Amino acid sequence: MRRPGIFGEFRLVAAAVVLAWGQATTGAAQNMDRARATIRTLASPALHGRGYVQQGEHLAATYIQKRFAEIGLQPLASGYSQPFSLPINTFPKRASLHVDGKTLRPGYDFIAEPASGPGAITGQVFQLDTLVFSQEAAQQHLLSTNLRQRVLVLHQHDANRLAQLPAALQSHLLTAAARVTLVPKKLTASLAPTQQPQPQVQVLAQSWPAQTRNIKLQLDAVLQPAYQTQNLIGYLPGRVQPDSFLVVTAHYDHLGMLGQRTYFPGANDNASGTAMLLELAAHYARSENRPNYSLVFIAFGAEEAGLVGSNYFVDHPLMPLERIRFLINLDLLGTGAEGATVVNGRVFKQQYQLLTTLNEAGHYLPSLAARGRAANSDHYFFSERGVPAFFLYTRGGPTAYHDVYDQAATLPLTGFTGAFGLLRDFLNALGASSR
Fold this sequence. Notes:
Blueprint: H1 12-24, H2 32-42, H3 56-71, E1 74-75, E2 81-90, E3 95-99, E4 102-104, E5 110-112, E6 119-127, H4 136-143, E7 150-155, H5 156-159, H6 167-173, E8 178-183, E9 200-204, E10 214-219, E11 222-236, E12 241-251, E13 257-258, E14 262-263, H7 267-285, E15 293-300, H8 308-315, E16 324-330, E17 339-343, H9 349-362, E18 368-371, H10 380-384, E19 389-395, H11 416-432
Parallel strand pairs: 6-7, 7-8, 8-9, 12-15, 12-16, 16-19, 17-18
Antiparallel strand pairs: 1-11, 2-11, 3-4, 3-10, 5-9, 6-10, 11-15, 13-14, 17-19
Helix pairs in contact: 1-9, 1-11, 2-7, 9-11
């Protein structure tokens, strides 16, 4: 990976100078009431989980475009929008499951597998015999069993082993009317660009009645082969070196809906990071804080679908990638009781040392922990192309993730103020300000 020359001779003395400025002149700190309101809005039912049902992500994009304009960011693309498309599987209407007459709740007791197909199924349970993983006789017996009116039920650890079975047996299991996977701890939803031929759901094991015999499942699934979405890009031109860029990113999308009533709020993931991006933008848009280098703010779409928006941007950049001095990606910033983790902290060691020095002097977060390279958020494709980048997320506190419990009302934002101060000082040290 490329390391920019500016850091070749960077010394901690410079960090001390910048820190002294930062402590003396904090400027306009973030507005916590405004940040909380941002998170409440993005995580509200009105935005339908910021996904691909009922135009949720487009509603979120419109909100962010309005905020960009109010802040005073200049558009780096027309209307701040960089459009692209992606294939995505969605669950727009019916999502109901009844087992032996008991009604299970979508989102709380069951979720759809991301690549589930549609179906309206009434059938009897067929419990997978785990001997199929070790005995050929059990495999042959299963191959001779007609599954078309049966609902295959198996435990998660066995579902994870299905790929080990012979291809013919895997294909045969797809002839079942539906598939139910019992999950031991929590339901974690995700997205997929493809669709299986059968309806498939995950059910929380504790919600599954013992000795269940009959299942009624109704699930609408629609594969959209080219859903139109967008990245949102605004910037503040640099006063001294406008052709050099510092970049702040966060994804605004989430998982959307399961049926017509259940949605995934995504308060921590990633309304919190989007709120931080907007707070930093508002800070640097003030005349006394205008940056020396151009400061670009990117709200990515389709991160939850596999980093699609950031990958598209890297392939179709709106500024030369080689002119990006550093990129900071913000995701999962709603907690912080235990500090924060910095992905790529072990890769860009001098920049990480600067970050830790600023944190210790400013007492911003309880601790920082460095991780290595990881393809777990929107920084990834940038750093793979040689752009120096960190991905920062907070730790400690509520553990809701990709579920219906990731709500604004229960998000503590323990480290939000500290993270803002740290990110501001770090950006200033990299060239956002020379004061």
